[in-house]
Amino acid sequence: MNLSKVNSIHYTLSGQSDLPVLLMSHALGTNLTLWDHQAQALQGSFRILRYDSRGHGRSPADHGPYTISLLASDALALLDELGVTRAHFCGISMGGLVGQFLAIHHPERITSLVLSNTAARIGTREKWDRRIQEVTEAGIPSVLGEVLEGWFSARFRSMHPPVADTLARALKETSPEGYIGCCHALRDADLSELIERVNAPTLIIAGTEDQATTLEASRFLQQKIRGSELIIFECAHLACAEAPAEFTDQLKKFLTSRTD
User: pTM of the full predicted structure?
Assistant: First the structure.
């Protein structure tokens, strides 16, 4: 596995060099380790490229605010520097919004698209303004409880505390400035009028208990993206962590049928 940085964006690259590339983009407040289960399971079939979004993990937390265009440009720069002309893309939540932007504005770079627990517009301006204010005034701990309740169902949190604890630690270690910068990007991003331009083969994954990106939001994506497929899991917002085996099986099935 290669660990390095491109334009200060931290990434890992694993798998044989002749395999198709799968670029994976994580959710707000997490980092590239969110995809550990999927990366381990799929690296025999794909070259797995994961990265820490700007302001997260080991990537820099430059002064914000950020935009979804900026976050997408980081992903493009990573592909460019590694000489990857086209890639499969899998993004969850904020990462899914990045994937939508890339598929709309840079379709030639996206072989196929997996949009997990995301929406053309995530949340409301009021929600993000409140989140920005809370973190600005009192830091990440002020939103920890609310975020964890949204990430996982109560059932999962009680049965799998190590998983929840690991991701809680990732959230606590996220730069407040980076978190706030990405909150600005999410607050201002609305792809509702553009999403029908997506032409890439698309798999949409939703959770029955996801309050942040609801089933209604996922069905809107399915309606607007021609030929897209919707799969629903019994989980909350982080399907790849709450239902890792089922998520990975569906991901592999979709991607292998659409590999160049």
Answer: 0.95
